[in-house]
Amino acid sequence: MALVSIITPLFNRAHLLQETWESIKNQKYSDWEWIVVDDGSTDTSTEVMYQITQLDKRVKLFIRSGEITKGPSACRNYGAAMAKGTYFIFLDSDDLLSSDCIAQRVLVMKADDELDFAVFPMMWFSQVPGDSEKIFNHFLKTKEEYLKYFLVDNPPWQTMCPIWKRDSFKKLGGFKEEYKSMEDPDLHVRALLSDYRFQVVNSNPDCFYRNSFNENQSQNNFWRNSIEGRILFLKDIYHYLDFNIESKDQKQLYFSYLSKFYLSLVKNFMLARLNKFQKEFIQVNSWAKENGLVSNRQFLLIKLIQRVYNSQSKLISFFRLRGIVYRLIW
Description:
Elements: E1 4-10, H1 17-25, E2 32-38, H2 45-55, E3 59-63, H3 72-82, E4 87-90, E5 96-97, H4 101-111, E6 117-119, E7 122-125, H5 143-151, E8 162-165, H6 166-172, H7 183-192, E9 198-200, E10 207-210, H8 219-244, H9 248-270, H10 274-290, H11 296-310, H12 314-318, H13 321-328
Parallel strand pairs: 1-2, 1-4, 2-3, 6-9, 7-10
Antiparallel strand pairs: 4-8, 5-10, 6-8
């Protein structure tokens, strides 16, 4: 059997850890280790985890030192450095695995030794798995289609969905630790732009994503992380494509996807929160114009929309102009 390392960043999830632990210890596949990296929890998370380590020697708890960057990406990278497995699965502390998750993932990886990673379906849930039938994944035909979905901010899979071959994950350089969100799309885009081999398995869901607001963050921090993460992703991937893609036509195609990503960022994340993210809005619009992601007409239109959204005029509300200009973005 091949050892599988389940790697979990942890921050203030004491009330959910038992559920996560139950889903791991009930695995039909027994050759696993659970690497948990605490990110400075202020509740009883570390006490709960210490108790679990006493129940099973396959569970290992690490406490993030002050030298390690705070955040889930840094914790995942640290966990990967500590892990001994042939394969990695990244599981957040509030999510769950089905009992046959590891077994079926290892089976797929062993069936084709050339695979760098394989992707499996994930189902949303609110209270218990099965209380929703919503599947997160998109099942497409080609690598190019999967890449497009990531580049237009419609991810076809999430952090928990892949099983990684250890060496393949490390060759990518792991997660970028400055990201507070969008770290998994960044990782997956880099994998898809490489020569990595992967397989997407359209089976029954083998993992479950808890669909609830992250109680570790305030609403303001949640939106700040979402917006700043997307701006960082947009700029990083743009420069990565510009440097690594030789074909002019291919590069322009990818840039057209990033243009849609940018417009989605403006429309779906930033306009409704201009009062808090005015500076970021102005900067990313200027950057997009300078790098050709928007035309002169689009740039001027977005500046007009910004003025309308910032206006306190009663006429704006009376004629519902915000709704009208909102629809103009597309």
